[in-house]
């Protein structure tokens, strides 16, 4: 496992010198370990390009396997620590950047020390379940998982239109909590890109209404979308629960409402902390439901 870590350090840093510095060992010591790694695997991992050492095709193909092995080793160490102490100290959660910023971060803040320390890392919604094979203990996804994982539906987060209270749309709608999609499309909109699930939900709704997008800009950063709305430059369409200094409206087409983005929590059924993870998922579901009231 140590040699695999040394190999990945070289792959990530690009040179033996940089890798040795990163690992805190001498360059000759690292070179010896890498040669032993090659011999043990009976693979040619390195080739010379002048004075530089470059990775072969076999080495590039080996990188994902080494990363997975190191992640599993780290997870095994965490499992041993948890079993010894009876406590789960920390867990890693993978989710889309929007889910992290709009839902997970507020949940972590509210839950405080009543749950294990949660750290997050962003992945695309297409890759979220693959994170369970790497370093994620729990994933939050907008697409349903397969039967090989344990999961808990978290409900649906609405895609709403957000404007400052002084915006003409807010004044026009008065005390209403909804806006017709045909009226909304007369405004400049700030939307997530087509890579996002929420944008797919919105585009489908507009298409079913027999309408098409007009003036709009795209951005996948929720903080920027909120800033554009607060500045009055655009109406933001997003899944933010309650952005500061903005008024939200449900988007409707007559008696039909814009669907929300469904979310699900998933984890490995054999995870050493599966009971704690399931409890966190249930609390996260309650947090979402409570925030939407």
TrEMBL record:
<dbReference type="InterPro" id="IPR050950">
    <property type="entry name" value="HTH-type_LysR_regulators"/>
</dbReference>
<dbReference type="Pfam" id="PF03466">
    <property type="entry name" value="LysR_substrate"/>
</dbReference>
<comment type="similarity">
    <text>Belongs to the LysR transcriptional regulatory family.</text>
</comment>
<feature type="domain" description="HTH lysR-type">
    <location>
        <begin position="1"/>
        <end position="56"/>
    </location>
</feature>
<dbReference type="InterPro" id="IPR036388">
    <property type="entry name" value="WH-like_DNA-bd_sf"/>
</dbReference>
<dbReference type="InterPro" id="IPR005119">
    <property type="entry name" value="LysR_subst-bd"/>
</dbReference>
<dbReference type="Pfam" id="PF00126">
    <property type="entry name" value="HTH_1"/>
</dbReference>
<protein>
    <submittedName>
        <fullName>LysR family transcriptional regulator</fullName>
    </submittedName>
</protein>
<keyword id="KW-0805">Transcription regulation</keyword>
<dbReference type="InterPro" id="IPR036390">
    <property type="entry name" value="WH_DNA-bd_sf"/>
</dbReference>
<dbReference type="InterPro" id="IPR000847">
    <property type="entry name" value="LysR_HTH_N"/>
</dbReference>
<keyword id="KW-0804">Transcription</keyword>
<keyword id="KW-0238">DNA-binding</keyword>
